[in-house]
Specification:
The chain has about 450 residues and is an all-alpha fold. About 65% of the residues lie in helices and about 0% in strands.
Length: about 450
């Protein structure tokens, strides 16, 4: 009774929060943008209230995050159709057929039976069904697990995938807390990921596997902090085989391994070029082993061409690219995406190599902050930025002093305004508002610290 009296208001807010998640999961249509953004706004306020205003202990906040996720347990994702492709790939793989060699549209040539195949193809949409799978092997393994246990039920498969994603989030909470303790940063920072409505909705609600990738990656960073670089490399390789994003961070480990500053928290006595080569080799070998069952000339052709679509064909919620596209229309009169899509990744690579060679990256704070800059720059130059992509900069930000990814995790929900009742139509004013605010906050955070230590404690 004393507990209830002491936390009466927080309990009421917690109940309201869970009720909103239930309503979000079971009573919201993607085309109802006004309802969506109002729910998100209130949920973000409640998260801020629990993290910053109420003195709840770690386990109470963790329990709230878990219960909020369980509110979605039997909900069919309502903001994304991608899960239909996940189920298709998993069921295809369980039949012994590589999901990289056939598109769902060509399923009649497979000679195998896929449960509820027509429903899955209709659910994923004609665009998705006409392309080869671009999900790496460990991600495919998760899809196959769902097919193994509930291969005849769409809802059953959704529940299995959701449980896997919730377990990954709990793993992030566990290792994120340990990493924050090692870095001597506030433990509450991890709840800007774990209690963030964006994460709960996009990962648990809509079944995106960024959380699984980030679980392996944050676990790897924790092991690296303890000097266990071999197993850290293995985990980074597994993380890459869930989503390819961690490949972007590999050059940033250069200064860490070759630095003479052995007092830095990440350092081991074996810090050297030789150890760096071993570290990269183990990552590469781990990735190769996971891809090995699928390797063929056809796989390489299909997988690489599908990945290229995200740079040269697809466009959604972009920032710098949309400005370039507008300029292109003014000058030449057509969309320059095919050309620009080849140039922007090169600029990203040059930027990452630049901070790898010319910035410090000798301490955990340096390394994590440069990772945050690298992934943020990558998304600012991307032609396609789906909301769930922001999970990566958001998690990295909790280990730094920068908060602009938290703002981004809210503002990116404005991109759902594109899905109206009359079809897809992006509101470029809302896209501009999103990036003006995010970039503005980022610049504001950086400016006061120009001549100070950027990696000081909060």
């Amino acid at each position: 009774m004393n507990f209830i009296k002491q936390y009466k208001i927080p309990l009421l807010f917690a109940i309201a929060s869970i009720a909103l998640y239930i309503n979000f999961g079971y009573g919201l249509e993607r085309s109802d943008f006004l309802k969506l953004i109002l729910f998100c706004t209130y949920l973000f306020y409640l998260s801020y209230y629990f993290i910053e205003k109420v003195k709840l202990n770690f386990w109470l906040l963790a329990s709230l995050g878990i219960v909020s996720r369980l509110a979605f347990i039997a909900a069919i994702p309502n903001l994304s159709q991608d899960f239909y492709r996940f189920l298709w790939d998993g069921r295809l793989l369980l039949q012994g057929v590589s999901p990289y060699l056939f598109t769902p549209s060509s399923s009649t040539a497979l000679g195998v039976t896929i449960e509820q195949s027509q429903q899955l193809i209709e659910g994923m949409g004609s665009l998705n069904a006409s392309h080869f799978s671009n999900y790496p092997p460990i991600n495919q393994l998760f899809f196959a697990i769902a097919a193994l246990f509930t291969g005849k039920s769409i809802l059953g498969s959704v529940v299995v995938l959701r449980v896997l994603i919730i377990l990954a989030d709990v793993g992030i909470l566990y290792f994120g807390k340990k990493l924050l303790e090692k870095l001597n940063l506030p433990i509450k920072n991890i709840f800007w990921f774990f209690l963030n409505p964006f994460i709960i909705i996009e990962l648990t609600g809509n079944l995106h596997f960024e959380g699984a990738m980030l679980f392996f990656f944050v676990w790897a960073l924790y092991l690296l902090l303890k000097g266990k670089w071999f197993w850290a490399a293995v985990l980074i390789g597994i993380s890459v085989s869930v989503k390819l994003i961690p490949l972007l961070f590999l050059p940033l480990f250069l200064k860490y391994f070759i630095s003479k500053n052995t007092s830095a928290p990440f350092k081991t006595q074996s810090s050297s070029w030789a150890t760096l080569v071993k570290f990269y080799s183990i990552i590469g070998l781990t990735v190769l082993i996971t891809f090995l069952p699928f390797l063929s000339s056809e796989f390489i052709e299909h997988f690489s061409s599908t990945i290229a679509l995200w740079f040269q064909n697809f466009e959604f919620n972009a920032s710098v690219y949309y400005l370039i596209r507008w300029i292109g229309f003014q000058i030449v009169g057509w969309n320059l995406i095919e050309t620009v899509g080849k140039i922007l990744p090169v600029l990203v690579l040059l930027f990452v190599l630049g901070i790898a060679f010319f910035r410090k990256n000798k301490t955990p704070q340096h390394l994590l902050t440069e990772m945050l800059f690298a992934i943020s720059f990558y998304f600012l130059l991307s032609t396609t930025v789906h909301p769930w992509y922001i999970a990566t900069p958001l998690l990295l930000s909790v280990f730094t002093k920068y908060k602009f990814p938290i703002v981004w995790s809210f503002m990116v929900m404005l991109s759902y305004s594109a899905y109206g009742k009359d079809g897809f139509n992006e509101n470029l004013w809302l896209v501009a508002l999103e990036y003006v605010l995010v970039i503005g906050v980022a610049v504001w955070e950086m400016y006061p610290f120009r001549h100070q230590n950027r990696f000081q404690r909060y």
